[in-house]
C-alpha cells in the first residue's frame, strides 16, 4: 500500500493535479459536497424530515445574519419550518445517489454494448450504432422524461412512490449509455487489431476472455473521463426532473425538489428557499465538471 501511494505521488497525474489551482479548488468543493451529503445524519444541525421536530412558527425565517433571523437556522427555513442548511445536506444525498447510480448503470450498459459492437463487429455493430445515432438525436432530458413517463404508465399507481427513485435512476441511465458505447466502441476498434490481441487469438484464448481481460482494461481511460463528466449531467438531469415534478417523491426531496418548492416563494420575498439549494447544485455540478475537464486533459497523451 505504501509503495502504491508513493508511485501515485510520483506520477504525472498527481503532478498535473497539484499544478492546477482550479482543479485543487474543485476537488476541495466536490469533497465538501460529498462528505456533507454522506454524513448529513451526523453533522446536519437538524433532521428536516422528522415531522415531530418541525414547528410552523419557525416557517419563513430568513438567514441568521438577517435582522429577523435565528442563530439555530443559519440559512433560514422554508414554508414548513425546515432548516435550509440541513435540507440541502439531506437533499444532496438524494441527488448524489441518483447521479452516481445512474452513471454507474449507464457505464455498465454502455461499456458492455460498446465492447461487443467494437470487437464482434458486423450486424451487431451496425444495429447498436444505429440505435445510438437515433437516441443521440434527442436531448437526454427528453429521453429521460419519455422513459420515466412510460414506466410510470405501465406500473400501478400505488407503487409509484416506492419505486420512484429507481425509475429516475433507470430513466437517466438509459438516456446516457450511448456516450459510453460509442467511446468504448471506437477504442475497441483500435485495440482489437493490436499484436497482443492477435497473439491471444493465436494461442486459443476465448473471445469473451480476450474482451474482458485484455481489451477492456485498455479502453477504460476514456470511459473514466466520460463517467466523470456524465456525473454532473446526471445530477442536473435529476434536478430537472424533480423540478418538473416527475423525479423523486416529496418524501425524499433532492436539490431539484427544494428548488421547485422555493420557486413558489421567490417573488414573495423568501428568496433563500430557492437560492441556497440552487447555489449548492451549481457548486456540486461545476466542481465535478471541472474535475472531469482536468482528467480529460491529464489522460490525453497529446497534451503531455
From TrEMBL:
Top-level taxon of origin: Bacteria
TM region(s), chain numbering: 21-44, 94-120, 215-237, 271-295
CDD domains: TM_PBP2
Gene3D superfamilies for this protein: MetI-like (1.10.3720.10)
UniProt entry tagged with the keyword Phosphoprotein: no
Domain ABC transmembrane type-1 span(s) in chain numbering: 92-292
GO cellular component, one term: plasma membrane
GO biological process, one term: transmembrane transport
Keywords from the named record: Cell membrane, Membrane, Transmembrane, Transmembrane helix, Transport
Family: Belongs to the binding-protein-dependent transport system permease family.
Protein name stated in the entry: Peptide/nickel transport system permease protein
Organism: Neoroseomonas alkaliterrae
Amino acid at each position: 500500500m505504501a509503495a502504491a501511494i508513493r508511485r501515485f505521488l510520483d506520477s504525472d497525474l498527481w503532478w498535473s493535479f497539484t499544478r492546477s489551482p482550479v482543479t485543487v479548488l474543485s476537488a476541495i468543493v466536490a469533497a465538501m459536497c460529498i462528505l456533507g451529503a454522506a454524513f448529513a445524519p451526523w453533522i446536519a444541525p437538524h433532521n428536516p424530515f422528522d415531522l415531530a421536530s418541525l414547528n410552523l412558527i419557525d416557517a419563513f425565517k430568513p438567514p441568521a445574519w438577517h435582522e429577523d433571523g435565528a442563530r439555530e437556522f443559519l440559512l433560514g427555513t422554508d414554508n414548513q419550518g425546515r432548516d435550509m442548511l440541513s435540507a440541502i445536506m439531506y437533499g444532496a444525498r438524494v441527488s448524489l445517489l441518483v447521479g452516481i447510480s445512474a452513471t454507474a448503470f449507464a457505464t455498465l450498459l454502455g461499456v458492455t454494448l460498446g465492447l461487443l459492437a467494437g470487437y464482434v463487429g458486423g450486424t451487431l455493430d451496425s444495429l447498436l450504432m444505429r440505435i445510438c445515432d437515433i437516441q443521440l438525436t434527442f436531448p437526454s432530458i427528453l429521453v429521460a422524461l419519455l422513459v420515466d413517463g412510460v414506466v410510470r404508465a405501465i406500473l400501478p399507481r400505488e407503487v409509484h412512490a416506492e419505486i420512484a427513485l429507481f425509475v429516475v435512476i433507470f430513466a437517466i441511465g438509459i438516456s446516457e449509455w450511448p456516450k459510453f458505447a460509442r467511446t468504448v466502441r471506437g477504442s475497441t476498434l483500435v485495440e482489437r487489431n493490436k499484436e497482443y490481441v492477435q497473439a491471444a487469438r493465436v494461442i486459443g484464448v476465448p473471445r469473451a476472455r480476450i474482451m474482458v481481460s485484455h481489451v477492456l482494461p485498455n479502453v477504460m481511460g476514456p470511459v473514466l473521463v466520460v463517467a466523470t463528466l456524465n456525473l454532473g449531467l446526471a445530477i442536473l438531469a435529476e434536478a430537472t426532473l424533480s423540478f418538473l415534478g416527475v423525479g423523486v417523491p416529496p418524501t425524499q426531496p433532492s436539490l431539484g425538489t427544494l428548488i421547485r418548492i422555493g420557486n413558489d416563494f421567490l417573488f414573495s420575498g423568501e428568496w433563500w428557499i430557492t437560492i441556497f439549494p440552487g447555489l449548492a447544485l451549481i457548486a456540486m455540478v461545476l466542481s465535478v465538471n471541472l474535475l472531469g475537464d482536468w482528467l480529460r486533459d491529464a489522460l490525453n497523451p497529446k497534451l503531455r
